[in-house]
Amino acid sequence: MADTSIPVRTCVGCRRRAPVTELLRVVVRDGGLTPDSRRRLPGRGASLHPTAECLHAAVRRRAFPRALRCSTSLETGPLEAHLAQQVS
């Protein structure tokens, strides 16, 4: 039987479900997408696998504005820098 104490979310990039421990929470701060590794920042969040492939898929599908209920375009620079740092 699966452990039901860990919440499950859907990645906005690949649309696969995964435990929150495997996903990166992303919020809007100052008009840009900001990673929330500790899952503590206020506001609506979107979950994303911490991979460049899922990020590009989410941007291509315009999933972030929909998931975060934001009508303006969002800057992905801080999120891309965070993911690049994770890989290094």
Task: Give the N-terminus to C-terminus distance in angstroms.
Answer: 36 Å
Q: What fold name goes in the CATH topology slot?
A: Hypothetical Cytosolic Protein, Chain: A
Major pleated sheet = 3 strands, antiparallel
The CATH homologous superfamily name equals: YlxR-like
Give, in spatial order, the strands making up the sheet with the most strands: 4-3-5
Spans with pLDDT under 50 lasting ≥5 residues? none
Protein name: YlxR domain-containing protein
Domain YlxR: 9-73
InterPro entries: YlxR, YlxR-like_sf, YlxR_dom
Pfam family, one: YlxR
What does the secondary structure layout of this molecule look like, with pairings?
Elements: E1 8-10, E2 17-19, E3 24-29, E4 32-36, E5 45-48, H1 52-60, H2 63-68, H3 77-87
Antiparallel strand pairs: 1-2, 3-4, 3-5
Protein name: YlxR domain-containing protein
InterPro entries: YlxR, YlxR-like_sf, YlxR_dom
Pfam family, one: YlxR
List key phrases describing it.
5 strands; alpha+beta; 88 residues; two-stranded antiparallel ribbon; single chain; globular; Hypothetical Cytosolic Protein, Chain: A; 3-stranded antiparallel sheet
Task: Briefly summarize what is shown.
With 88 residues, the chain is α+β, with helices and mostly antiparallel strands. The chain has helices at residues 52-60, 63-68, 77-87; strands at residues 8-10, 17-19, 24-29, 32-36, 45-48.
